[in-house]
Each structure stands twice: as C-alpha cells, then as structure tokens.
Amino acid sequence: MTGSRADYGLLKRLMKLIDADPEMKLQIIVTGSHLSSKHGLTYKEIEEDGFQISFKIDIIEHIIDAQSTARAMSKSQNEITKILIEIKPDLMVVLGDRYEILSAVISALLSGVPVAHIHGGEITTGAIDDAIRNAITKMSHLHFTATEISKNRVIQMGEIPSNTFNFGGLGVDALQSFNFLSQEEVEKNLEKKFGKKNLLVTYHPETISKKSASEQIQILLDALSLKKEINLIFTGVNTDPGSDEISTAINQFVQSNSNAKYYPSLGQNLYLSTLFYCDGVVGNSSSGILEVPTLKKATINIGNRQCGREMAESVISCELESSLISESIDKIYSENFKKILSKATNPYGSGGASLNIYKSIKGHDYQNLLIKKLN
User: Fold this and answer.
1) Domains, the chain, ranges and CATH?
2) What distance, in Å, lies between the first and last C-alpha atoms of the chain?
3) Using CA atoms, how far apart are residues 116 and 97, in angstroms rounded to an integer?
C-alpha cells in the first residue's frame, strides 16, 4: 500500500525483493498524491521502475480542511475494503503515518487481513500524524521499527515483543544502494545550474499549530529572501490541509527571486541526486531526519512537525521564526559545523532493513498473527 512519493521511495527495495521471489506475489494498491496531477502523477514512477500496479484508488480532491480529508479517508476505506475482500491477501504492508494509510489499515482490520507496519513507535508531536501512527500500530500485527527506542515504545504500547523488530530505517537502504546521477545530469533535469551554495527546501503544513499554513510558509520565505547568494531548490508540498496556500506562496516567491526554483515533484532519483550536490536541506520533511544524515549533509529542521524524533548531530532544530532560520542557515556553513557533519552518524541504522524485513515477513505464519493479536 503506497499513498505518496515519500513512502514509495522507502518501500521500493522491499517491493523488489518480494516481486523477485517466486513463492510470493506482490500486489500494489496506489492512492493519495500518487494520482494527483498537481503532485506530479508519481504513480508513473512506480510503473517506470518495472512494477505492475494492481489497483488505483483516486481519493484526492481539494484537501483544504478536516471535512475534505475525512471524505478522502472514507472513500479510501470503502474502496480498499472491496479490494481486500476480492483478493484476500495474506498480509498488507504499510509504512508511516499518513491518513490514507490509516484508512487502509482500518479496512484490513475489518477484513481480517494481518498488517505489517514499518516505522512505528516514532514521535512527531507537531502533527496529527503522531496519533495516526499510534493508531496504525495498535491495528497492526508485525512491527518493523527504525530504532531500538521506537521498538521499545511499540512494546510498551502492548504489542507482542516477538513480533516487533528493529532493523533500522528504510531511508538508509535507499541511499546505500542508490546510483546518483552526475551533476551535469541533475542540472539538465532541473534546468538549473548549481552555485557555490545550494539548499533543498521542503516545507509541509504543521497540522497542529496556531499559525495558518500561509503564516508558516511566509516566515520561512522571509528568512530565505535574505539569502540571495544561495541557490534554493523547492520541492512539492504534501496533501495536508494548507498545502495549496504553501505551494501558492512558494510559486510567488520564485517568480521574484532568481536564485529560487520550484518543482512539484522531483521523483526519488532526481530528489536524492539533487540532495547529493546540495549543502543540506531546509524545512520540516521527515527526509531531513531519516535519510539526509547518512550523506553527511546538514538539516535545518523548522518548527514542531518532527519534534520528538531521534535526530543526528547534523540536524539543527529551530523555532518557526525568520531570524532563527536565517541564523541556522549561516551556521551550517561555519567551519565548526563542517567538523560536526564529518563525524555525524545516523541514528536510524547503517542499512539492510529491506532485506531483513523481507526475510521476516516471508517466514511468518500470518494466520497465527491474527490469533495471537485477538488473544
């Protein structure tokens, strides 16, 4: 089950292992922003990677508030339940904490389908994702966490210890097995040359905040407007309420700042390759926490969206204030911080999670998973 470019990028290696196993059958349900033209129709990337999509569920409408989000969830739950009754899968594999994933897991619970949940047990107090993630955990049967702290947290929630594993984060796998494009190839795809200083910027709405999405993004843009000497590469926002206001503000910003450019979706290959040639990332995307430290790149983590996650030394967290964001950007170019970067390690492991999860799900008796959970 995949609902966005973010979870697909992490799941891809696991999907390839399952698809290549003659004793296993991979069936892919695609929904969420994958099917949105505004977000780049990223389902095409899945097909370009050689996968056959089994089902597409278009739930994206104009997501502007709680009601529109709830309608999208309702449609997703209804359609996925129909699919599960039809195909009767042995296991549903999901990752993360998005609302479309919650809908899928509710459908699985009602349909008697065991669930394997990846990246549970984490904390992000600045978004409703935190509650969604915990709800998914309680409805899941196999748990693959990214750190030992997360594993212990899942067990503390009452989940069965023998069904809870810490194999590390899938983002580390993505980087270790990745063939980066050359700088010339990246510049050609971006239609933009790198400068002496380059930053990748991704900002999503804080779904638990007193500030509106428009106010949030304007604070960030005010700080970035002072950095004329830095190339700013903006990537697309997710489908939470407030995303339209953020993308509109970014588009207006790039029109009046020649050092900035906006891309609704880069796709995983171009995103990771662009990151490779940048000095770091700015914003509040989980990628800056889970993946970027592996490349020894800086992360400026803004606001509360990722608050609670375990973070590497390469991550600078700052409040959503223009002056603090500006100071943090200056800091990553200091000699002292460059020394910190060189020694930083990623708390989400050193790789191998995809293979270990594949081996684990292949070796489990799924029917017994259901019985144990019910008992």
Assistant:
1) 5-168+352-374 (3.40.50.2000), 183-343 (3.40.50.2000)
2) 27
3) 13
**pLDDT, tens digit (0-9, with 9 covering 90-100), for 270-324:** 999 999 999 999 999 999 999 999 999 999 999 999 999 999 999 999 999 999 9
Three-state secondary structure along 277-315? HCCEEEECCCHHHHCHHHHCCEEEEECCCCCCCCCCCCE
The kind and range of the H/E element at 52 are none
Its pTM stands at 0.89
Task: Give tens-digit pLDDT for 172-191.
Answer: 988 887 899 999 999 999 99
314: its two tokens: 């390469």
pLDDT in tens, 134-169: 999 999 999 999 999 999 999 999 999 999 999 999
**Cα-Cα-Cα-Cα dihedral sign, residues 83, 84, 88, 92:** positive
> Taking the CB of residue 351, how many other CB atoms lie within 10 A of it?
21
**What is the token pair recorded at 85?**
């009754």
